[in-house]
């Protein structure tokens, strides 16, 4: 078994050899390490992408907008990923971002996962018909389990989710009420000695 | 009185970093301190009469066990080499997480002696190999088998029976990734498992030499005297492989240096020094003279440094004995100011290290701050602006900005990874091929390049926008934002200049390991000694913490 440290070092060097700058290669290495940590096919897809890159042209999208489409050549997932990561603080305001024609979307996914941690929000991604939830870079929930990730995504839809509860107010109230059974009622004398007691708040 | 931390632009110069010495903060000393309460055992010792075979040593506490598995092999003299291109060694070692089964030992027997071309698993934590110092080893075997103790002068010249030629950890060759074990309290310090491996290897060398001497002449043989054992360490040959580490781990480097600087600051701020603390400090300085006078090297460069160190330490002792009164307020501050005025860099850093000896209360909390969660600081804050980035560079890299990289001598060298051994190397840009494959270790040059572009960029541009057209400088943009928070994270010097002494970079790291007696064999590699004078494993429960300054040979 290869260690994550070996994976990171080798991906960094291979990315540099594939023509990316050292800084972008460092980002790629972190992202592929992350995919492998989450048992997603990072090394496999990067390898295939680099092989294909020698023969085919890919589009470098450097400035991301709400709707992004490359009709002629698929987007390079690395340049797209680094741009997404760099621009996430602005993209956060868009709520929904769409991409058409992205090569090796699992590579792009790792950068979106890291972006989720930067803005402290979950990100919901749809790659064609498959759904993925990126949870602050802590894990990646996807319906791709046991299925192959595609080499090309026709449509990627990214929704930046607002932080909200996963439960109803009633469910919370019931749980809170139960937690109150661990509290002890204070006697009057204890209340008199508690912090702030005996003072007016206007002194 | 509040003392300021020393200026990174002074301390992070290579000539100063290359003058650092071991201290209480050093990893081998903090390792001993952490593991002194652990149970040490020799679990297996299965060597033939020539000392070839397997051995296992362990440290155990509660349910946690770390086991060193040793494989001693026969090699021919002509196969013995300390260079990284070697393929055979006298002994090879792996530190195993837990108690190895017979199956584990069989598996590792096939892999560990192969070192870089073997495959390890997540159950192994560190990996190493070592060669005998043949003349010392043979002499010791010969002497012991004849019922005599070895010649101390010869031992003193070398200081060890074996020297390691590499110690690997953190995921190399399939070893466990650091993140798998980072939450274990006992290894909450850099390189602690590497230190454990080297320490147990030292014990193996004593056991092996006794074993071989006994089998050579069972009737007459004696064991190597305990005190001689204590005064022998483990040698190490270190080349350029170590140098890029300190560039590639900026927050870790910061935490090492910052701990040292905080220790010095706190010691300078002590108003009244207790008499016992003063006595200990002076005693350590005096006893340490032996470490200087027994420091052997053929390197002219190092000989000059040792010679000026000795002169300045003697001058300092004369000052302390005759012109200084520890009863004054803030005596260590006065001492430090005296050193800055009258001593060389080597001596300043030497005495700074010894100042820490009496102060466990200051040093122990700092030891815990010497690791780094590097991932936390990896992302570039791309919402910030070009103006902010430029301001940070001006504030943090003033001397770097003065360098002119159009001058050939400032741009003389390049760092690359050798195809033969996948190890870092340094070469002359104008004489060797391959500079187009240069590693990103010319930080000063790239910072200057970044600064020049920033000067003609719009102030209000965000870093995200700036990077869309300056991707080739991304690696240094990241570093600038790191140095903003971590002032000691960057070497404030040119790492590709004509006058670069790469051994300064090695020495910095080795001083934090706790190495003694730096012996440069060229400007690109050196030999050192570790654990010389250290307690033996079965003495760990109760040992003299200041052993470093009390070696007898």
> Major sheet of chain B: order of its strands?
1-2-3-4-5-6-7-11-10
Number of helices in the DSSP assignment of chain B: 22
Low-confidence stretches of chain A: none
Greatest contact between two chains:
A-B, 27 and 33 residues
Task: List the strand order in the largest sheet of chain A.
Answer: 1-2-6-3-4-5
Unreliable stretches of chain B (pLDDT < 50, length at least 5) are none
Number of helices of chain A: 7
Average pLDDT score of chain B: 94
Cα gyration radius of chain B (Å): 24 Å
Helix content of chain B: 40-55%
Helix percentage of chain A? 40-55%
Distance between the termini of chain A: 68 Å
Structure, explained:
The complex is a heterodimer of chains A (203) and B (553). In chain A, 43% of the residues lie in helices and 17% in strands. With 203 residues, chain A is α+β, with helices and mostly antiparallel strands. Chain A has one domain (4-160). Chain A has a six-stranded mixed beta sheet, covered by helices on one side. In chain A, β1, α4 (77-91) and β2 form a beta-alpha-beta unit. Chain A is elongated. Chain B is of the alpha+beta class. Among the domains of chain B are: 36-129 and 167-223, no CATH class; 375-485, no CATH class. Helix content of chain B is 43%, strand content 14%. Chain B is built from 22 helices and eleven strands. In chain B, a hairpin with a 5-residue loop joins β1 (39-47) and β2 (53-61). Chain B starts with 7 loop residues before the first helix and ends in a 23-residue tail after the last strand. The model of chain B has no long low-confidence stretch (mean pLDDT 94). Chain A binds chain B through residues 1-6, 13, 20-24, 26-27, 30, 62-63, 82-83, 85-90, 114, 118, and chain B through 121-122, 170-179, 375, 378-380, 382-383, 417, 440, 463-464, 467-469, 471-478.
């Amino acid at each position: 078994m290869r260690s994550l440290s070996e994976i990171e070092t080798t991906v960094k060097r291979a990315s540099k050899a594939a023509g990316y700058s050292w800084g972008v290669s460092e980002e790629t290495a972190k992202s592929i390490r992350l995919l492998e940590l989450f048992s997603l096919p990072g090394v496999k897809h990067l390898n295939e992408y680099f092989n294909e890159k020698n023969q085919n042209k890919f589009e470098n999208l450097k400035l991301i907008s709400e709707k992004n489409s490359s009709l002629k050549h698929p987007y390079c997932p690395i340049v797209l990923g680094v741009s997404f990561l760099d621009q996430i603080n602005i993209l956060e305001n868009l709520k929904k971002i769409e991409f058409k024609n992205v090569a090796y979307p699992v590579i792009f996914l790792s950068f979106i996962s890291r972006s989720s941690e930067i803005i402290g929000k979950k990100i919901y991604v749809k790659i064609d018909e498959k759904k993925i939830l990126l949870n602050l870079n802590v894990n990646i929930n996807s319906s791709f389990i046991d299925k192959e990730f595609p080499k090309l995504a026709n449509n990627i839809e990214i929704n930046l989710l607002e932080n909200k509860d996963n439960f109803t107010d009633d469910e919370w109230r019931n749980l809170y009420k139960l937690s109150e059974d661990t509290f002890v009622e204070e006697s009057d004398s204890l209340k008199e000695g508690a912090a702030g007691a005996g003072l007016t708040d206007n002194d | 009185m509040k003392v300021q931390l020393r200026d990174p632009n002074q301390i992070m110069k290579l000539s100063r970093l290359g003058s650092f010495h071991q201290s209480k903060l050093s990893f081998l000393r903090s390792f001993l301190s952490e593991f002194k309460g652990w149970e040490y055992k020799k679990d297996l010792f299965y060597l033939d009469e020539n000392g070839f075979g397997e051995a296992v040593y362990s440290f155990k506490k509660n349910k946690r066990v770390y086991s060193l598995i040793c494989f001693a092999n026969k090699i021919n003299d002509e196969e013995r080499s300390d260079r990284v291109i070697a393929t055979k060694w006298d002994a090879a070692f792996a530190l195993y997480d837990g108690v190895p089964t017979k199956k584990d030992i069989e598996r590792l027997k096939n892999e560990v002696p192969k070192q870089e071309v073997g495959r390890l698993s997540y159950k192994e934590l560190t990996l190493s190999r070592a060669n005998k110092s043949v003349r010392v080893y043979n002499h010791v075997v010969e002497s012991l088998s004849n019922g005599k103790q070895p010649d101390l002068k010869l031992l003193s010249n070398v200081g060890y029976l074996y020297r390691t030629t590499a110690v690997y950890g953190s995921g190399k060759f399939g070893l466990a990734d650091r993140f798998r074990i980072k939450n274990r309290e006992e290894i909450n310090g850099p390189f602690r498992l590497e230190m454990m491996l080297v320490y147990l290897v030292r014990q193996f060398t004593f056991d092996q030499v006794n074993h071989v001497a006994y089998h050579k002449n069972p009737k007459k043989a004696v064991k190597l005297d305990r005190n001689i054992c204590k005064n022998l360490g483990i040698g190490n040959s270190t080349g350029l492989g170590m140098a890029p580490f300190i560039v590639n781990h900026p927050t870790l480097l910061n935490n090492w240096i910052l701990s040292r600087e905080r220790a010095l600051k706190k010691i300078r701020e002590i108003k009244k020094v207790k008499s016992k603390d003063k006595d200990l400090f002076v005693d350590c300085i005096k006893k340490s003279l032996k470490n200087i006078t027994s420091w052997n090297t053929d390197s002219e460069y190092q000989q000059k440094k040792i010679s000026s160190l000795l002169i300045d330490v003697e001058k300092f002792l004369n000052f302390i004995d005759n012109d200084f009164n520890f009863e004054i307020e803030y005596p260590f501050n006065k001492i430090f100011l005296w050193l800055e005025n009258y001593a060389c860099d080597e001596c300043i850093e030497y005495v700074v290290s010894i100042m820490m000896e009496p102060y466990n209360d200051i040093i122990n909390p700092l030891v815990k701050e010497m690791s780094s969660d590097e991932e936390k600081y990896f992302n570039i804050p791309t919402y910030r602006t070009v103006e902010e980035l430029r301001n940070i560079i001006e504030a943090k890299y003033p001397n770097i900005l003065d360098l002119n990289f159009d001058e050939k001598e400032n741009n003389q060298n390049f760092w690359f990874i050798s195809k033969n051994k996948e190890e870092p190397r340094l070469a002359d840009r104008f004489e060797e091929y391959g500079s187009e494959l240069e590693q990103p270790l010319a930080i000063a040059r790239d910072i200057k390049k970044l600064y020049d572009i920033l000067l003609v960029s719009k102030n209000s541009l965000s870093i995200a926008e700036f990077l869309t057209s300056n991707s080739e400088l991304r690696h240094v943009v990241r570093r600038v934002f790191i140095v903003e928070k971590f002032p000691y994270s960057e070497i404030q010097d040119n790492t590709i200049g004509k006058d670069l002494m790469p051994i300064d970079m090695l020495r910095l790291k080795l001083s934090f390991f706790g190495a003694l007696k730096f012996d440069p064999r060229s400007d690109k590699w050196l030999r050192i000694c570790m654990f010389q004078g250290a307690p033996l494993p079965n003495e760990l429960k109760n040992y003299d913490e200041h052993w470093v300054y009390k070696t007898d040979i």
